[in-house]
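Mods, move this if it's the wrong board.
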Amino acid sequence: MSTPSPEHLDNHHRDTLRQIFQHPTSHNIEWRAVTSLLDAVGSVSVRHDGKFTVKVGEEQEILERPAGKDIDDQMVADLRRLLGNAGYNPH
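Not the wrong board. Structure tokens:
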């Protein structure tokens, strides 16, 4: 299996990917930037309950839109796992 790389992503998507994997965790990653990145690397669909089904490669996650514009630490952890398991990393 080949490892996907961020080269096919635009600068905005690469920046969002870097923010997700940044240590310490960034606290200003916008939800709209995350959904844009996920659309670029996989598929995002809205479920009947308002949650989002995200599929990247063989990995799938159910996400809930945050109350504010930024995602929380738990979603960052979930995205790291999802993207990392699908072979994505910021480098």
